[in-house]
């Protein structure tokens, strides 16, 4: 479907995507900043806020309250180092595609602001830190640690052959609460499993929304995404279903963990935030994608975590 044919207040909200939405507003990396800040901007370090709260949520539910400082720091280190490695691999594998896409051409690698060898080094160091953190969290965490690494390396390639790539990304982030639970309980449970299902559906949904801005480019280049394959209307319909499924999974997880009224009020508020995300995309197209994608989803992840913490404390 042609994304330009929308019945919304702005006659052409998807026709001319804001240059570099989510990519430093289409400008080169901030002038004068060092290579580390360029790297952090390239991997969108601030997007760690999507999965990290769910890792903490899995940890809190496993512990039945606030965890020890050592366990908290171990999970944090594993999460941040894994995401750094995964994003570095994503940027390396996709650098030719990024160079051809006007929206992403100013990313650090295609723009020549970082060398590929430097990013490979950062990915390798992050992998070693991640494995060390996994080892510190126990034998089971260490034995399972290569599974998310495999999917992180696979994910950038999936857009070459399947629109299910959104769900692969969802599973990668969805592993966060389960990994944290295993670090605490050293075993398996329906509680983190339901959290994982919810995160997978939530992430797949918002990644499809984010992919709307590249649907024309993806079709021209023979790349696979749900919006490129099925169009905007089907994409927004499926994302609504996925986010509804995420809410159900998080409600069931709270019930399985015997959380109380405060947690379920929090999930109700999360539903309102997700409704606003879809309203923003439906009404404004890409003009407010930063708010719909980053702001709303950051609030969603933090709200689920804070609702569980408040329920335990109050």
Overall description:
This protein has 314 residues and is mostly helical. It is 70% helix and 0% strand. Helix 3 (69-93) runs antiparallel to helix 5 (116-136), helix 7 (146-158) packs antiparallel against helix 8 and helix 13 (261-284) packs antiparallel against helix 14 (289-313). The protein has helices spanning 35-42, 52-63, 69-93, 95-100, 116-136, 139-144, 146-158, 165-185, 190-211, 215-221, 226-230, 232-256, 261-284, 289-313. The protein is globular. Residues 1-32 have low confidence and may be disordered. It has a single domain (35-313), classed as Orthogonal Bundle (Tetracycline Repressor, domain 2). The termini are far apart.
Radius of gyration: 19 Å
Order of helix and strand elements from N to C terminus: HHHHHHHHHHHHHH
CATH architecture term: Orthogonal Bundle
- Assign the CATH topology: Tetracycline Repressor, domain 2
The percent range for helix content is over 70%
The number of strands is 0
How would you summarize the topology of this molecule?
Elements: H1 35-42, H2 52-63, H3 69-93, H4 95-100, H5 116-136, H6 139-144, H7 146-158, H8 165-185, H9 190-211, H10 215-221, H11 226-230, H12 232-256, H13 261-284, H14 289-313
Helix pairs in contact: 2-3, 2-8, 2-14, 3-5, 3-7, 7-8, 8-9, 9-12, 12-13, 13-14
